[in-house]
Amino acid sequence: MDASSSSSLPSPEPYTAKTIAKAAKAAFENSQLIPLSERVKALHEIRKELENAKEAILEANKRDLEAAQHDVDAGRMSITLLKRLDLNKGDKWDSMLQGVTDVANLPDPTGVVSYASELDDELELYRVSCPIGVLLVIFEARPEVVVNIAALAIKSGNAAILKGGKESTETARQLSAAIQTALSRTSLPRTYIQAIQTRAEVSALLELDQYIDLVIPRGSNSLVRNIQHNTRIPVMGHADGLCAVYLDESADLEKAVRVVVDSKTDYPAACNSAETLVIHRSLLHTVWPEVARALVAADVQLLCDAASLSSISSLTPSIPKFTSHVHPVTPSAYITEHLSLTMAVLTVDTLHAAIQHINAHSSHHTDCIVTENELAASTFCRGVDSAGTFVNASTRFADGFRYGFGTEVGISTGRIHARGPVGLEGLATYKYMLRSKGDKGHVVAEFGSGDGKKKFKHAPIEATSVPF
Amino acid sequence: MDASSSSSLPSPEPYTAKTIAKAAKAAFENSQLIPLSERVKALHEIRKELENAKEAILEANKRDLEAAQHDVDAGRMSITLLKRLDLNKGDKWDSMLQGVTDVANLPDPTGVVSYASELDDELELYRVSCPIGVLLVIFEARPEVVVNIAALAIKSGNAAILKGGKESTETARQLSAAIQTALSRTSLPRTYIQAIQTRAEVSALLELDQYIDLVIPRGSNSLVRNIQHNTRIPVMGHADGLCAVYLDESADLEKAVRVVVDSKTDYPAACNSAETLVIHRSLLHTVWPEVARALVAADVQLLCDAASLSSISSLTPSIPKFTSHVHPVTPSAYITEHLSLTMAVLTVDTLHAAIQHINAHSSHHTDCIVTENELAASTFCRGVDSAGTFVNASTRFADGFRYGFGTEVGISTGRIHARGPVGLEGLATYKYMLRSKGDKGHVVAEFGSGDGKKKFKHAPIEATSVPF
């Protein structure tokens, strides 16, 4: 075989991270003219196909669970992790399907005009929301995230590459196959949603900033941190959820007890649970003992600084649990995300000191003040540099569903693009469309400060969508 | 002197990149409660102090210019760069001062509510714009950028660290000194705006993502690219401005000539100038020869593909300039930002092919279609994945002032946070403030799907600012 005949038959591009990323970008670009109705249809097809393939998916899930049980028995996996894998547990399967329908029914985050101005007679500028491009979503354990993220990406018009945890490989493979089958019944490219399996592929993809526009890690602190430190692509997410509740001088006792207990105990493993309790010194013998009593009754381990420890030490004889639940704090406790029934306690002399401690130690996720004082509330909300600053409300409210977004893409502690709980809007960016309707088109050279030069008009246009 | 007495007198922290970054973060955090009026006062003080220090500043500028002249004579610097250094040229000094006043008069980008919802009776959520934190701004040559960026940062409530080009070191130092003197007459910390001098400091700062929240490079392609590749901190800006104009099948001749000539020649060194002309094949013997004639008359060098070259070759005898101005293209011309009177020309068979070429080769900055067809306009604007998609209007309109923002922080080709020309809004992020006005505060445990559980209300609140 001579060289010319061999070169006339190009060999297919090998299946590499670059091939995947290029295919995703091409799928995104080619999808820009596909109407929303087709994207919504894709979501309904996905739900249908998941129902069709239920048996195969749950069988794959069973294989993952068996392998996981093996790992649990060998002490290599926690029972909590194993439980998260089970797609047939409780109403998980049905919620997963319902989630797809819910996303289909959410308002379209794209095509929304947020700024419109007539720059000159017959020259109209529109800033309009549009998809970002290609998302790389990396998550752990829970296999239903494949479906959840695929639905969010399709609804918002973004292509996505998904990588789940190795524990759920079999399940994720079946779920992805069902999604691809569903996509093949629409005009969306099949490569719109792609799944990858290996960490090596993730590492390679994190280098490809020319194709991938946003990385969304959902999982443990170490997963997120590792990704943040290994890519130039923007990352949306949070590594830590180190939230604090501050009991202000004027804190109401009942509110203090309710808000602190809920923030700490409602779901200790969540990122929006409180890890630190900051107390104004004036409360040490009034509100604090009652809060401590309630926390200990809820089985919370308290790691106290000298002042807060000493002020409740006299209670120890009357509350036997105090002996096992109240301990002196070490400095590292104030920068630890316990994710369990453990809380670090700090005494401060002023609101300002509380704000300073929180800004220096919290992960800028969500922090709360309990106060009856409007000025203190206002000062705290502005002075604390976190995505959420709450007054007399549990940190656990920091959540996309509770905020009313209808979904949650994740929670971001970054300050660029999206911050706090992120809804579908967080998967959109915007572009500017400018249209001249003038007889001769519009050119810049006609504008300026000289004689006979045009001046810009900059008259606001009332518009919610682009009229062309 | 014994060890204990020496340790009782802590030596001042050495002046390092980390010290600077920490000081900036502290200045930012401490400034959160300082009202807008004080920030505006700071801007007026800066203008006053610049006027006071005019002589010293212009003398420093003279020293920079002399050193630069030396470099120009030695062939180490371009005369263009030298000209940019001159603070006393034309109305540059006065515009710089006026710019400070203009920024002072712009609307406050912070404190604006973009989402407000009553989650439950007496539980109110507000999403409110706020400063980002610490900006690191790196720029070249033009020393007035120090003042410009300082004004934008102060107005938007961000602390900033500024690094200018080494060519303007003396001027930048005097400008910074004036800014610091002005700040010392306000309650803003002096470390709110800091200037650094060395590249080593920049390299060190680019590592400090715990203190620095956003990097804004303003300068050459290589400067921006180098920064993008050497930091995990989000970068707002653009490396290339590779803009295209597409002449659609239905393009009007006059509009085509005007828009192409303006896009190419109004200011060839600007990032929003067109570098590529894409032509529908049907125009090769109608519109294209006239456009070519106009471009060549404006001294533009045309690098043409075979089809566009052949269709105008018959004109060469009648237009002598064609011999010196029309040349065959090489593929690299389609990915080159010429920044001069040079334009690459490509012939395509369809609108779709034009969109594909632009998506694959442009820098996603600004691209234009010249067309009389509404559907083609709409398809181009949606199908081209760029920050600006224009119809019958010069690419040169892509500019913060022309868009009506009153200022321009830069132009971003990223898709995260801000895209296209960025106004003061681009220096703001948002946070969520949640306030319970309920008698007992609000806890999550009371909400849920069970009996006696509360349901979320999610009733929109009409609000433009936070009422507490």
Automatic annotation (TrEMBL), chains A, B:
Reaction(s) the record says it catalyses: L-glutamate 5-semialdehyde + phosphate + NADP(+) = L-glutamyl 5-phosphate + NADPH + H(+)
Q: Origin, by domain of life?
A: Eukaryota
Q: What is its EC number?
A: 1.2.1.41
Q: Which residues form the Aldehyde dehydrogenase domain?
A: 16-295
- What keywords were assigned to this record? Amino-acid biosynthesis, Coiled coil, NADP, Oxidoreductase, Proline biosynthesis
Q: PROSITE patterns per the record?
A: PROA
Q: In which pathway does it act?
A: Amino-acid biosynthesis; L-proline biosynthesis; L-glutamate 5-semialdehyde from L-glutamate: step 2/2
Q: Pfam families recorded for this chain?
A: Aldedh (PF00171)
Tell me the GO molecular function terms.
glutamate-5-semialdehyde dehydrogenase activity; NADP binding
SUPFAM superfamilies named in the record: ALDH-like
The biological processes this protein is annotated with in GO are: L-proline biosynthetic process
Keyword Amino-acid biosynthesis annotated: yes
Task: List the coiled-coil residues.
Answer: 36-63
Described function? Catalyzes the NADPH dependent reduction of L-gamma-glutamyl 5-phosphate into L-glutamate 5-semialdehyde and phosphate. The product spontaneously undergoes cyclization to form 1-pyrroline-5-carboxylate.
Q: NCBIfam families from the entry?
A: PRK00197.1, proA
> What family is reported?
Belongs to the gamma-glutamyl phosphate reductase family.
| Protein name (database record) | glutamate-5-semialdehyde dehydrogenase
Annotated source species = Cristinia sonorae
